[in-house]
Amino acid sequence: MKRWIAALAALLLLVGGCGKLRDQVTDYDALVKETLAREYAFTGKMTYDGTQAEAKFTKTGAADITAEFSAPEALSGLVVTTAGEEVKVQFRGMDVDLSAYTLPTQSALTLLREILTGEKAGKLTVKAEEEQLVASGSILLTTYEIVFDKETMEVQEVRIPSLDGVVEISDFSFTD
User: Fold this and answer.
1) Number of alpha carbons in the 13 Å side-chain half-sphere of residue 16
2) Residue 164 gets which letter from DSSP?
3) DSSP 8-70
4) Helices then strands, each counted (H, E), the chain
C-alpha cells in the first residue's frame, strides 16, 4: 500500500512539474503573427539590389503602410501610401493614385508591404535565439527573414537574401 501511495505521489509531482514547464514554453509562432498584425512605426534604412534609401514607415490597419522617404535626396519628400489594393504617391506637389498591381512584384515597397502585412498562416518558420527571434518564409517567389527582439517583440531588421535586400530598423514603436 505504501508503495502505491509513493508511486501515486511521484506521478502527481511529475505531472504537476510538467504542467509548470509547459506554462513556461512560449508560442513564438503565435507571438510573431500577433506582432505583425499590430500597428507600428519605424525608420528603415534600406539596401536593395545596390540602392540605398531611408524612410519613415507607419503601418495602420491590417495592411496599410505609409513610407515617407528622406534619402537619397532624389527621393526626399516622396510619400507612398498603400491602402488595400490602392496606392497613393505624393511627390513635389503631385498626387498619383495607382493600383497595387501596377507596382512591380519584386520592388522593395511591394515586398516589404507583403512581408510586414501579408497573411503568414503556415508560411513562417520561427527560430528562437538567445536575444532574438528570426521568422523566415517566402512570399512572391522571394525568401525573407524578419528579426525581432525576443523580449519586446520590436522588429529590428528585415532581410531579403535572394535580392540582397536589408532593412535596418530603428525607432520602432507600437502605435496601437
Assistant:
1) 6
2) T
3) HHHHHHHHHHHHHHHHH---HHHHHHHHHHS-EEEEEEEEETTEEEEEEEEEETTTEEEEEEE
4) 3, 11
Place of cell 526626399: 76
48-78 residue pLDDT tens: 878 899 999 999 988 889 999 999 999 999 9
Q: To the nearest 10°, the Cα dihedral for 116, 87, 79, 73? A: 90
Q: For 101, which DSSP code?
A: G
Could you report the per-residue pLDDT of 115-133, keeping only the tens digit for each?
Answer: 888 655 557 899 999 999 9
All 3 cell numbers of residue 138? 517566402
Overall pTM surpassing 0.70 (yes/no): yes
> Which range (21-30, 61-70, 158-167) has the least confidence?
21-30
Taking residue 43's Cβ as centre, other Cβ atoms within 10 Å add up to 16
